[in-house]
């Protein structure tokens, strides 16, 4: 934008200078020519009174003197055809002037000035002088150089002013762009400094108001999430008390384990909301800090929890886990919530007795590949694009449509992605690539 504004001012200045300097240059040229012609005419006007009163010898001497003083040839053509003064040919202009008309004839080498003198008894005499082009354009080229220098100086001055003006406009716009990018990068504390023209100051103020409003809305959302999670603790506590009153120890232990899982999920939501709030406020820990967990251990723990329900519903569970730690760039509670959402979909959308498998293997370059596949009816036939099922709130099975979106966002936050496809032998297959930590942890993740 700065370059375009400078070019615009340069083009406008050039047009104005051309419209002003070109006519002025032509005027200077014509004025110099007219000045030389007037001076030559004034020189030969002194001979007019001598033509009718002085003899030929005196008239020739006077013509020579006038020519020598003016530096131009002066010739007097008498009616009898004789010529006095500087020798010169009898041109067509001289013949025309003998009719009693004074005139100026422009030629290829200069101007011929002819003055007709009447009153002689033998006819009309003609006084002729010649002004060469060098005299007609004397000082013109120097004046043109001065004008050209003035034009260049004005153009440079205009460019300097245009650059200052463009800088005053571009600097606030660049700052607004920088602040917008920082806000897009979740740095919600970024603010623009209102500067520049009133319109840009208004935009900066509106951007700051928008950032403040986004912070306020996110803070309200986190508070509502924390409040909702906290409210769930009361019914969970009631369920725990009821489970402890069961007479069957195995049933009481099974219900208690499930209550513990729900409490962990609720606690994870609260911690996640606080962690995001602290990060947006700029107090989320040192720069570059990231959450890391051992994907193999988290998957092993959650599979052990869901294996009890799989046994109760007659499902065959196949597990393939790495025998070494698999650090990934994701908190343990978020990875547990992802696996719970995917396994919950298996139990919710496939009939009892349908088997499923869970694999978590290392990837080349670090990270892990988590796959959940089942032998159920597969993806809905009405869904042509499997990616449409991952959209938040989209569900072809009557559920909330949040499980796959949770998994997709978790994979994206870790630097990976989610793939949804049909299995080789039927059923559905969900594969998550989980990125490795950007820095190796000091201690293996627990």
Automatic annotation (TrEMBL):
Pfam families for the chain: HAMP (PF00672), HATPase_c (PF02518), HisKA (PF00512)
Membrane topology reported for the UniProt record: Multi-pass membrane protein
HAMP domain boundaries: 167-219
Location, primary (coarse class): membrane
UniProt enzyme class: transferase
Membrane-spanning ranges: 141-162
Keyword presence, Cell inner membrane: no
Coiled coil, from the record: 200-231
UniProt keyword annotations, A-Z: ATP-binding, Cell membrane, Coiled coil, Hydrolase, Kinase, Magnesium, Manganese, Membrane, Nucleotide-binding, Phosphoprotein, Protein phosphatase, Stress response, Transferase, Transmembrane, Transmembrane helix, Two-component regulatory system, Virulence
EC number: 2.7.13.3
A molecular function GO annotation: kinase activity
Name recorded for this polypeptide: Signal transduction histidine-protein kinase/phosphatase MprB
Source organism of this protein record: Plantactinospora sonchi
Classification lineage: Bacteria, Bacillati, Actinomycetota, Actinomycetes, Micromonosporales
